[in-house]
Amino acid sequence: MGFKVLILGSGSALPTNHRNPTAQYIFCNNRHILIDCGEGTQIQLRKNKVRLQKIDTILISHLHGDHYFGLVGLISTMHLLGRDRDLTIYGPDPLEKIVRMQLEIEGYPLGFKINFVSINGDSAKEIYRDNAIIIRTFPLNHRIPTNGFVIEETPKKLKINKFLFELDKVPIPAAQLFKMSQNYVSNSGQEYSYERYTQAPDKSFKYAYCSDTKYDESIIEHIAGASLLYHEATFANDMKDRARQTYHSTAEQAATIAKKAKVSKLLLGHLSARYGAVYTHLDEAKAVFENTYVVNDGDEIVLY
Ligand SMILES: [Zn+2]
After folding, report:
1. φ, ψ (nearest 5 deg) of residue 241
2. Are 209 and 150 in contact (CB under 8 A)?
3. Are residues 112 and 23 located together in one domain of the fold?
4. Are residues 11 and 102 located together in one domain of the fold?
5. Ligand 1 mean position to 145 CA, how many Å?
6. Of the listed 36, 56, 66, 130, which one is catalytic?
7. Model pTM?
8. How far is the CA of 204 from the centre of ligand 1 (A)?
9. Which of 5, 19, 94, 266 ranks highest by number of CB atoms within 10 Å?
10. CA distance 197 to 175
11. Is 157 exposed, middle or buried (0-12, 13-18, 19+ CB in 10 A)?
């Protein structure tokens, strides 16, 4: 179990020596997810010792090259390494056509199946759920259709109050029912209320991902209360006009969204290559939302 976010690429359209284009690897309760796949993502996965065959789910936010140009390379390598497990890719409509055409021209069939799921940044919805995690998408406000994502743990089960459970000599099979908020009736007809023998479950964590987008308060309802928010901050306040024109955000705007959404921690990334240092972004964001961090390639943020 556990929940962590590994930053594979923290840059924007122009890669630099220190910042690769956007990609993140998410480990959540033994699920392995890639969000965006900029050029060089497979190399970043290797450098950071992530076994790329473990990745079963890829979420693509939008079809600007710095968010998906690494996809065909990654898929080809998975094939060359003998993958036979399915891969599911969520992204805007043209993605399937683009990827399949590139693979077809290579002239050999893949050894595994790719399931493409079309999401086009036009509505908020749940796109995946199992017994441990839920993935949702919601629209961002960018020049082309762009998906934001939320990955969260399913609500955890109630915890047994061992002291009272043992004190009252409750039959052992009752524990499983109590954890699911159900009472237990013994063979002799005695009813045990789950409320007496349980306490609140452990917290469920939630990660929200917003890249790329201009400042847009309609995002807030979808990311509210997140344990961790990644929000693009391509520009600092010196280029606020440029941010608006290009449908990007400043660090201060990202911090304002974080504050209004009452998240616990904010990560800033997708920094424009024109900025050498991160101090300005950090200062401007922290003035609004203190618990802010500017990510670097290779950073691992552990939720628990
Ligand atoms: Zn973009």
Report:
1. -65, -45
2. yes
3. yes
4. yes
5. 9
6. 66
7. 0.93
8. 30
9. 266
10. 9
11. middle
Please tell me whether residues 115 and 129 are part of one structural domain.
yes
**pLDDT tens-digit map of 196-241:** 999 999 999 999 999 899 999 999 999 999 999 999 999 999 999 9
pLDDT tens digits, one per residue of 40-90: 999 999 999 999 999 999 999 999 999 999 999 999 999 999 999 999 999
Q: Which of 35, 85, 64 is nearest to 212 (CA)?
A: 64
Query: CA 78, CA 69: separation in Å to the nearest integer?
Result: 16
Enclosing domain of residue 194:
159-199
* Integer Cα distance of 216 and 112 in angstroms: 39
In CATH, what number is assigned to the domain containing residue 37? 3.60.15.10
For residue 13, give Cα distances in angstroms to 68, 89, 157, 191, 298.
11, 22, 43, 63, 18
143 and 102 both lie in a single domain: yes
pLDDT at 14: 85
Given a cut of 90, is residue 280 above it in pLDDT?
yes
Statement: residue 12 has pLDDT above 90: no
Choose the final residue of a domain: 184, 199, 214.
199
Q: Are 149 and 86 members of one domain?
A: yes
**Domain total of the chain:** 2
CA of 111 to the centre of ligand 1 (A): 31
Interstrand relation of 57-59 and 31-37 (parallel, antiparallel or unpaired): parallel
Answer for the pair 113, 87: CB distance below 8 angstroms, yes or no: yes
